[in-house]
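task queued by scheduler; priority normal; single chain, no ligands, no partner chains; default sampling; output format set to structure tokens
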Amino acid sequence: MARKVTTRELGLVLGARLLKTRDLHYGLWTEGLEVSVRNLPEAQRRYSEFLMARIPPGVQTILDVGCGTGGLAELLVARGYRPECISPSPELTRLARQRLGPHTPVLQTTFEAFTSARHYDLVLFSESFQYIPLGESLPRSVALLKAGGHLLISDFFRTGAPGESALHGGHDLQRFYAALREQPLDIVSDEDITAGTAPNLDLVDQVISDYARPFYEAFGYYFAANHPWLARLGRRLFRRKLERLEYKYFSHRRNAAAFRLHKCYRTVLLRKRG
């Protein structure tokens, strides 16, 4: 049976095309960098540099979980690390293999299904941690690490702030810390970089307004004008799904202010005891 393409995967691929970027992670908007599409590659470079600066001395082997198109792994190889990559997406795996070449393994699999006889110096989650259940991600990471190895997580979490949010995704932050206490892991560092990542949402909202919304409205107008009864039937059958889509993407509620309220972006370095 052919594998279905998830909406997340489609969003990542379309986002890369619309934003003209080879990387799929957030940018880090540090002081002096104007929030604009043209500056996104620089913001993403700053994020990558920030993340690599958190890798402890002595690390050589790295498991990059959810490697996207391989951008971060490419930088790791250039710095002398030996990454191995996994990705559940056929398209992103293809792009990562094309980018990294034959000497960096890229395996198409979910983290939940991944097995290896090797143990790594570091397991890395860069905006992929939120997609894996806490009951799988943390114990599996511990099992894949050498004694004294490190787990590096950089992702956003839900704050539990009251009110409805158009921003989905992320584990509950307090549940994450509770799950950490159940594992043989010590926190080496824990940094809140929400202020530097939140502006990405204003950028995405701008791109949706400039490109996605006009296309959506033009297609709706064309379809209703040429197939009015099918358009009315479709609207009736899929009303709730369309309303959710329009609320999520076209209501201007996916912005930096909403992100700062409902999300907390953290970069956490952990060390396996032993």
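post-processing summary
- The mean pLDDT is 86.
- The longest helix spans residues 199-226.
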